[in-house]
Amino acid sequence: QVQLVESGGGLVQAGGSLRLSCAASGSIFGINTMRWYRQAPGKQRELVASITSDGSTNYADSVKGRFTISRDNSRNTVYLQMNSLKPEDTAVYYCNADIRNGFVSVNNYWGQGTQVTVSS
Predict the structure, then answer these.
(1) Residue 55 confidence (pLDDT) above 90
(2) DSSP for the chain?
(3) Cα 47–Cα 57–Cα 52 angle in degrees, nearest 5
(4) How many CB atoms lie within 10 A of CB 64?
(5) Residue 104: per-residue pLDDT
(6) How confident is the model at residue 13 (pLDDT cuts 50, 70, 90)?
(7) What is the pLDDT of residue 1?
């Protein structure tokens, strides 16, 4: 079994920063793309940022220039550094990853989510 465990969420004032972490554990041969999604109340879950195994990144337009995704392959961990936070960044943030469980098998996994609240 594979688990993704997020940490680092919390309450911060507008303009502040938070750093989210997501550690994968379990039966892991390797990890392909890792992603951060978020879901605000009453809204659909949206992709915030992604990073491939070789470090290529993509960001939603709403967070470009403010958020940075990175990963530590030795620790099976992905990070999301969030700066210049805005109230509209308030959401539950979810980690997502494509994980190789064997030589051929690749499965997609989700973390349980961590709440980020930005006060105005």
Answers:
(1) yes
(2) -EEEEEE--EEEETT--EEEEEEEEES-SEEEEEEEEEE-TTS--EEEEEE-TT--EEE-TTTTTTEEEEEEGGGTEEEEEE-S--GGG-EEEEEEEEEE-SSS-EEEEE---EEEEEE-
(3) 90
(4) 10
(5) 80
(6) very high
(7) 87
